[in-house]
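Posted in: Structural Biology > Protein-Ligand Complexes

Title: Requesting predicted complex, acetyl coenzyme *A in pocket

I'd be grateful if someone could produce the 3D structure tokens for the following input. Sequence and ligand are given below.
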Amino acid sequence: MTVCEYKPGLEGIPAAQSSISYVDGQKGILEYRGIRIEELAEKSTFLETAYLLIWGELPTEEELKAFEHEVLFHRRIKYRIRDMMKCFPESGHPMDALQSSAAALGLFFSRRDLHNPVYIRNAAVRLIATIPTMVAAFQLMREGNDPVKPRDDLGYAANFLYMLNEKEPDPLAAKIFDICLILHVEHTMNASTFSARVTASTLTDPYAVVASAVGTLGGPLHGGANEEVIQMLEEIGSVENVVPYVDNLLKNKAKIMGFGHRVYKVKDPRATILQGLAEQLFEKFGYDEYYEIALEMERVVSEKLGGKGIYPNVDFYSGLVYRKMGIPTDLFTPVFAIARVAGWLAHWKEQLAENRIFRPTQIYNGRHEIAYTPIDQR
Ligand code: ACO
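-- Reply #1 --
Done. Output follows.
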């Protein structure tokens, strides 16, 4: 076997063959199953896009109705899961609550039947349906309230906002939230998707696959950056402070949250769409003073780091959108997970179709033939 050159972070190393999504990082193009993200954001819905990703083709009207109905039917969570979540500490991070709750689903549906398309479909439906309910339930319970039941007359996005805020959302907010889910649902071989595929390759259950991916998504270098962006804008406080703030980060070789991407060397196309969505929300529900700071950040960082291909990524404007919808900052990454679960499931299904367990190698750089030192001589 030829030994390849070691690439930290596996940069540029293909980990799978996949037909789910495609990114051209130089041109700023993102496609799901060959369809441009801009077109899906304009014309599709989250559930239709999830279907496209998992089953490979856009559903017919009948297929979509059946899928939407199945998801609607599975939105409730078992009372034992709800009671388990009640015991979680209110101070715990909602991503940790989500990871634990997703893993707990495996306790209830532990049968593995990975060659059976009905099992695959049921597991996918159950995860897509229950993850939003678990995120909203934890939010209400950590405030000392009982979770609210999903409402069957509301669509996927509207129902989540309803479960979170205990009131029916404005239709524009619900529509924009649905578009946000489309924008976050899938993105080639990123860290959490890789994590999902590695876990899937052991032929464990899909709940473990999703739980491992949720754990990976939470880190600040990945999905957790959206939360940190708002904290950063808060810290900066005013447009005048942007330049000294950025200079200070650069002097200390610190990363500027919401900027840079392993693949994109131009502005992330999702950031462009999210920025437009934020502006639509500001128009209807009032301006957000952080937007001025964000615009100045984009200008300054692009000027200073554009030469290295560092521009806003998906996490830069998403927080401003969610903030305007009244979503608490530490729920931004769980909201990302609500969307991304469908992408992970598409990769789970694809991995199973041609599975080989992931077992990379390493370059050992430690010592050999060392004698054991008795404890009293160390
Ligand atoms: N701020 C300042 N400098 C940066 C940034 C940034 N956000 N991103 C990259 N750079 C610089 C690095 O310092 C490095 O410079 P050097 O070559 O002079 O040393 C160069 O660009 C390459 O950076 P790497 O860290 O090697 O890039 P990598 O591809 O490993 O990391 C990552 C990509 C993790 C996204 C990085 O850009 C980053 O940390 N960004 C901030 C966190 C963030 O927004 N994450 C969300 C990404 S989107 C998502 O996961 C959903």
